[in-house]
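Spend some time on this chain, tokens included, and walk me through the fold:

. . .
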Amino acid sequence: MKYIDNSNIDPYFNLAAEEYFLRHKNDEYFILWRDEPCVIVGKNQNTLSEIDMDYIETNNVKVVRRQTGGGAVFHDLGNLNYTFIVKDDGKSFNDFERFCKPIIGVLKTLGVKAEFSGRNDLLIDGKKISGTAQCKYKNRVMHHGTLLFSSDIVNLSGALKPKKIKFQDKAVKSVISRITNISEHLDSKIDVLAFKNKIFDYILKSEKDAEVMPLTQDEIDEIEKIKKSKYETWAWNFGSSPKYDFYNEGKFTGGTIELTLKVEKGIITDIKIFGDFFGVKDVKEIEDLLKGTEHKKEEIKNAINNVNIYEYFARITMEEFISLF
């Protein structure tokens, strides 16, 4: 098994790296990596229904879709991520506990008793420290997981707490769990990088023929191509969401507005605007302008930027109208 110490903290790059080593290489790998603040959503999730977009935009939190299923998770530099990529022996896929055993072993050496629970979680004293996910490509299996070491729990809950907007879809919903940081359970204090080294040493000793492999420039170049064509694109991160219905309402000085959308592949296919507002023009003109637009505030604003919003919604500003989306 080859060990890759990936020091890059760009989530777009790191998820692209996983895809590269899963799909374009034949060796088995173990990767440790961290991300700057971001939300990583599951492959089958409706991105917008998992996040608080206002919080995301205000705090410059990146949002990225991964290859594996499961729920949305928050990453920051206090969170350590690990990835196993192995040949499928016919038993690996869906055997989450097998891949969690080395992590449990590392924690045991630090005096922390962790246990595998449910489908894919690691717990300390009944609180979640790790969620894991898997996918399969041809005869290869990728298993990856989070390890909450000294993560900012406030940011985690803020980024993953969607506002009370009604989404109706068949996408996978994230389960809110009681969580804790590993660092809170250690007798002797160490930082996340020291913890990373502990895992690294444990894997090297327990895996036969393990060798350390730095990323080569050729590998970095190939990963960058995948990053640019897929992982940093709106089409993958938002447009790949399952189709859904979206509803929101707002009360403003000029009256109330109710909004219903039908969205498919991130594109608004139908929109209806209702309310007790006053206007001199028919809101159907606004509806027609927004059909075919990405369900993204910036794109919605661009689509109606040249209209006088007051002619449709008296005493309601463009910013107030856009906030409904």
